[in-house]
Amino acid sequence: MVQDFVRIPILAVLLCVSTVISLAACGSSGETEGESSAEGSSSGQTELTLLRLGDLVKAEPIFSPIIESFEAENPDITVNFEAMAWDEATTKLKLLGAQGDLPDVTFVNIANGWDLAAEGYLMDLTELFESDETLSSEIPQSVIDIATTDDGAMYWIPSATGAFGLWYNKELFEQAGLDPESPPTTVEEMISYAQTITEETGVPGLGWGISATEDFAHVVESFYSSYTGEDIWSDKDKCFTFENNEENRELFAQALEEMAAITNDYGITQPNPVEYNPSGMRTLFRDGQMGMYLDGVWAVKELLTELDKGEESKFNTGLFPAGPAGSHPVMGCDGWAIPEACENKEEAWELIQCLMSSDNQTSHALQWGLLPILESEKGKEEFSGEYWDALIEQESTVAARPKDRNVAMIEQAVADGAQAAAMRSMTPDEAMDYMIDTVKANYNG
Amino acid sequence: MKKTKKKNVLPYIYLTPAVIIIIAIFAIPLINLLWYSFARVDLIGNFQNWVGLKNYEYLLTDDFAATLIRTLLWVIFGITGIFIVGTTLALALNKPIPGRGFFRTVIIIPWVIPHVFAGTMWSWVLNSSNGIVNIVLMNLGLIEQPISFLGQHLAFPTVVFIRIWKGVPFLVMSLLSALQTIPSDVEEAAKLDGAIGLKYFRHITLPLLRPVMVMSGTILMAWSFTIFDLVYVITGGGPLNVTELLSITIYKKAFINSDLGGAAAIAIFTMVFVSIIAFFLMKHNAKEEKQ
User: Fold this and answer.
1) Using the beta-carbon criterion (under 8 Å), do A275 and B151 form an inter-chain contact?
2) Which of A274, A279, A269, A214 is nearest to A425 (CA)?
3) pTM of the model
4) Which among A101, A126, A182, B235 has most CB atoms closer than 10 A?
5) Dihedrals phi, psi of A274, to nearest 5 degrees
6) Do residues B194 and B200 make contact, with C-beta atoms less than 8 angstroms apart?
7) B180 CB within 8 Å of a chain A CB
8) Which domains are assigned to chain A?
9) Closest chain B residue to A19, measured at CA
10) Which ipTM did the prediction report?
11) Does A95 reach chain B within 8 Å, measured CB to CB?
12) Level-2 CATH architecture, domain B61-290
C-alpha cells in the first residue's frame, strides 16, 4: 500500500521530467532544420525565404507566380514564401531580428522598419539601390526621400505606398450645382464645397473622422505638412519640427483650429465625427451618404465595383486639399528589406530586383491596393481610370511620417493631442505642448 | 521512528508535481514581471538596464490617478449593475415560469460570445450613422439627431452597460445554482412564519446566497480589472481617454510605447491592488459566516 503511495508521485515526477525532455527535444529539432538548410546551400542550391506582412490567402496568389518565374530564371535558387499577420509583426519581426533569423527578403512597414533599422538588423541598401540604374530612375525622388533617413540610408526598397487624397461623389457635386470635374484644391475650397453640398442636397458635404487612431494621425500630419511645407518630425533632431520653430507652431495652430472648426462649427460633416476613423467612412461614402472624404489608394479595392464603370462611375479623386504650403499628405511607404544577418545578400537582392520589376510591381499593387510607384507603371492600361490621375499626381508632393523607431508612440501622441484640439477640450497650443511632453516622457532613444 | 519520518516526507512527495506546475505557471511569469518592472526592457523582453523605481514613478502621476479612478468606477458600476440585473433575473428564472429552460439558455449567450466579437457587434449596433439603435429611435421619432453613444459624454456609461450585459450571465448561473440548493422546507417554514416577498429575500435568500455572491463578486471584480479587448475594440480607450482603463494603459505602454518595464510596473500594481481587495472581501465573508 505504502509502495503504491510512493510509486504514484514518482510516476508523476517522471511524467513532468519526460514533458520537459520532450519540450527540449522540440527545441533541438529547430536546430536540426537550420543545419539541414545550411547543408542545402552547401550542395549548391541557395534557399531564400521571402516574407510579406499580411494575410497569406491574399499574398500567396500574388507572389506564387512571381516566385515561380524567379526560380525558373535562377535554377540554383529556391524561394520559400511566408506571410505574417500585421498584428504579430511588431513583436515577431523584432524577435527574429534579435535571433538573426529574419527572412532573407523581409517586407517591413514603417511601424517596424525604423525600429529594426535602429537595432542594426537591416542592411543599408543605398549602394545596391543606386547601382541599379533602372530601379533608381524608376522610383520618384519624392518616394526615395520618404524611404531615406536624414543621413542618407535606405533600409528598404519602397514597394507598397499610398497617400491620402480627396475622394468625392460626382453625382452629389452635380446635384449641388458644382462642377464634378473640378474638385476643391484647398482646405478653404473643400469647406466651401462641403457647405454647398450640405445645403443643396441635405447630405453631409464632408465625411470627417477624428477618432484617435493611426489614420487620424496621418490626416493631422498631412494637414501639418500642407500648412508648413515640412515633415512633422525631424529625423535629425529627433523632435517635432514645430518644437523649436515658432512659425511652424503658429501654422500648426491654424491647422488645428481649422480642424476644430470643421468638427464643430461649419455643420458640414456627418454626426459625431469623434466616433469615426478617417478612412472608416468608406461604406458611408460608397452608399452616397457624404459628398467628399479623405482617404487613400486603399479605398480603390473597396470601391472597385463603382470605379470599374469608367466614365459612368460616380466617384472620383482629387489632390489632398492644399494648405498655405501646398498639398503634402504623408505617404505610407513599406517595402523590401534584407537583414544584416542574411547569408545570401546577393541572391536576396536579385529577388528584390525581380519583385520590383514593372510587371511584378503592378501585379502586387493592383491585387493589394497600392499606388503604382514605378514610372514605367504609370502609363499602363491598369492605371488608366480617371480616379488614378490625382492619386498618382499626389505622389510627387508627399511628406514623410516620423522616421523614428518610436513612430507608433509619436503618432499616438499626435492623434490624442489633435483629437483634444478638434473637440476643443484643449487649445491648439495646449495640444501641441501635450504632443511634445508625451513624446519626451516616453521617447525610447 | 523510520516509519514516522517516511510518513512526514510522503505528503511533500505528493505535492511535488503540483508545486512544479504552480512554479512553472505562476511563479516564473510573476518573477519575470517583477524584475521587468525594475528594468528598462523592450517589447521582446530584451533587458537593457536596471532603472530602480523609475517605472513606478508613473503611478504617482495625475494621468495614472485618473485612469485608476476611472477603472474603479468601471468596476464598481459594472459589478453593481451585474448584481442588480443578475440577481433579479436569477430570482425570476428560479420561479416555475413558462419557457424557463429557454430563457436560461438564452441568457448565457452574451457570456459565450468572445469579447472581440461582442465589442465589434456593439460598436455596429450603437454606430451614429448606421447603428440599429439610432435608426430605430429616429424612426420612432424619439430623437431627431443620432445619439453619440461612443462620444465623449456617453462612451463611459456605454462601455459599463456592455460590461453589465457581458457579466450578467455568469452571476445568473452562479446564483441559480445556489438558489437550487436552498431546501424547500426552509421556504415553507419561512412562509409559515410570515416571511414572504422582500422580507423572505432579505432574511432567507440573501444570507444563503451570500457565500456565492462574495465569491462571484470577487471573480467578477478580478475580471473587470483585467478586461481589455472588449473596451479596446469599442473605443480604443477614447475619446479623450474617457474609457482608458488600467488594462488599456498597460497595453499602450507595452505595445505602442515599447516600454515593457513601465507596463510591468502597472501590472504589478494592479495585481497587488486586486489581491488586497479580494483578500479583505474573503476575510469579511469568512467573519460573517462565522457569526
Assistant:
1) yes
2) A274
3) 0.87
4) B235
5) -65, -20
6) no
7) no
8) 44-162+333-383 (3.40.190.10), 163-331+396-442 (3.40.190.10)
9) B21
10) 0.83
11) yes
12) Orthogonal Bundle (1.10)
